[in-house]
């Protein structure tokens, strides 16, 4: 099994990337036999999606597309900027096709320097998957006070209660993601999926 992890902050020193690295290290511990591919937008934003050209330049998107097609599930990490998911995350989801992520489970993880993080969850659930058919899990995770979280080892005696709780939640969500990934393979292989006739969502 392969898990694609997107770190969706454009900032060079992104806390979202710290979260992504934590999850990448946790995946093989929580999902037996799983491996990860981590793609970061930190200092590396994709060109804007352009309908006239069918998306970003092929030389930029082709290697990402291959990893998405090989993946069984996605983790999408976004900080909350002005009460929104980042432009880079939304642009990335626009670039994704149903052939790459359709009927694969996606886990939303949002990041906040304070007590925020809920608005990007609602935004991504509302408008992130109409045409690409990515299937968000009913669970999500919000890493609040991210500057104080995920800095030490899991077994450190110095973990705060809040830090320990978010680690437990993230690991639970990964196990759930693995279970959904296995289950949705059957949906994709069922012959029921028809993206040619029904190219766009409603």
Describe the structure.
The protein has 6 helices and 5 strands, in the order βαβαβααβαβα. It has 202 residues and is α/β, with parallel strands linked by helices. It has a single domain, classed as 3-Layer(aba) Sandwich (Rossmann fold). A 5-stranded parallel β-sheet has the order 2-1-3-4-5, sandwiched between helices. Helix 5 links the parallel strand 4 and strand 5. It starts with a strand and ends in a 13-residue tail after the last helix. The relative contact order is 0.17.
Outline:
It is built from 6 helices and 5 strands, in the order βαβαβααβαβα. The protein has about 200 residues and is α/β, with parallel strands linked by helices.
Element-level helix/strand string: EHEHEHHEHEH
What is the name of the CATH topology?
Rossmann fold
CATH architecture: 3-Layer(aba) Sandwich
CATH homologous superfamily label: Flavodoxin domain
The structural class is alpha/beta
Mean pLDDT: 94
Q: In the residues, how many domains can be counted?
A: 1
Low-confidence stretches: none
CATH class: Alpha Beta
The helix fraction, in percent, is 40-55%
Number of strands: 5
User: Which descriptor suits the 3D outline?
Assistant: globular
SS element count, helices: 6
Query: How much strand content do the residues show?
Result: 15-25%
Q: What is the topology, as strand order, of the major beta sheet? A: 2-1-3-4-5
Largest sheet: 5 strands, parallel
Between the first and last Cα atoms, what is the distance in angstroms?
Answer: 30 Å
Question: What does the radius of gyration come to?
Answer: 16 Å
């Amino acid at each position: 099994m392969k898990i694609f992890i997107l770190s969706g902050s454009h900032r060079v020193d992104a806390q979202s990337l710290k979260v992504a690295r934590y999850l990448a290290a946790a995946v093989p511990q929580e999902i037996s036999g799983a491996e990860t591919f981590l793609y970061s937008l930190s200092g590396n934003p994709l060109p804007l999606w352009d309908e006239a050209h069918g998306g970003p330049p092929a030389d930029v998107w082709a290697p990402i597309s291959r990893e998405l097609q090989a993946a069984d599930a996605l983790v999408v990490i976004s900080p909350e900027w002005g009460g929104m998911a980042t432009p880079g995350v939304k642009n990335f989801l626009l670039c994704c096709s149903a052939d790459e992520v359709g009927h694969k489970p996606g886990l939303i993880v949002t990041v906040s320097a304070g007590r925020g993080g809920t608005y990007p969850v609602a935004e991504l659930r509302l408008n992130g998957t109409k045409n690409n058919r990515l299937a968000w899990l009913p669970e999500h995770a919000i890493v609040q006070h991210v500057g104080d979280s995920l800095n030490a080892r899991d077994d450190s005696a110095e973990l705060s209660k809040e830090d320990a709780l978010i680690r437990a939640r993230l690991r639970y969500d990964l196990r759930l993601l693995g279970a959904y990934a296995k289950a949705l393979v059957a949906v994709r292989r069922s012959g029921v999926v028809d993206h040619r006739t029904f190219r766009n969502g409603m």
